[in-house]
Specification:
Blueprint: E1 3-10, E2 13-20, E3 30-33, E4 42-45, E5 51-52, E6 57-66, E7 69-75, E8 84-85, E9 88-90, H1 97-109, E10 113-124, E11 129-138, E12 149-155, H2 168-183, E13 189-192
């Protein structure tokens, strides 16, 4: 199965469309059309009649908290090499969202977490991703950069490098977190991201 990504500008954002060339079931070429009973184009194999559905990817992330500080990672990989992010990544088959967030924290920051709770669900339609962000306590104060991180540090709010955050969803998550921290009340936030949100004072 061959997939390629095509980018086009949509209201200031990047729209990602994946083009499939061959059927992963039988290896024959596929065509793009609206299958009977459907309402949008799909990649369809005319040889074996397989309809290939492409669905959003789930990204699981974590806000690892140690006392009054939280853990951020400085990315060692593209995209956004050298910028700061929360530990997060695509789910693997056979794991829960909590397990994925815990694993990403261990892989990127060599940190273990406990008391993990869902904190935010953010849809990013223009890149076909859904972020599920969790709050968690670090089990110990130990951490170090994993293979995908240049650096890992604990931050208080006034230390956050807001202009050096890697992704809009990270900025939005941190803004929610620090606002909620003032009242010590952490509801689950649900929202959509269509463009880079300006930080609210």
């Amino acid at each position: 199965m061959l997939l390629s990504a095509h980018n086009s500008s949509v209201q200031g954002t990047s729209q990602v469309n994946f083009q499939m060339n061959y059927c992963s079931n039988c290896g024959k070429r596929v065509t793009e059309r609206i299958p009977e009973g459907d309402d949008r184009p799909r990649h369809v194999c005319e040889a074996c009649a397989t309809v290939h559905y492409q669905n959003p990817k789930i990204v699981a992330g974590c806000i690892p908290v140690w006392k009054d500080r939280l853990l951020l990672c400085r990315r060692a990989i593209e995209p956004r090499h050298g910028l700061w992010t929360l530990p997060a990544g695509f789910m693997e088959n056979g794991e829960s969202t909590e397990q994925a967030a815990t694993r990403e924290t261990r892989e990127e920051a060599c940190a273990t977490v406990e008391n993990i709770e869902l904190y935010g669900v953010f849809s990013i339609p223009h890149i076909n991703q859904v972020y599920m962000m969790f709050r968690a306590d670090m089990s110990t104060g130990e951490y170090q950069p994993g293979p995908e991180s240049l650096d890992v540090q604990l931050f208080e709010e006034h230390q956050i490098l807001w202009d050096e955050l890697a992704f809009p969803v990270v900025r939005l998550t941190l803004e929610h977190y620090f606002r909620d921290k003032k009242s010590d009340h952490f509801p689950v936030h649900v929202g959509n991201i269509h463009q880079h949100p300006a930080r609210q004072g």
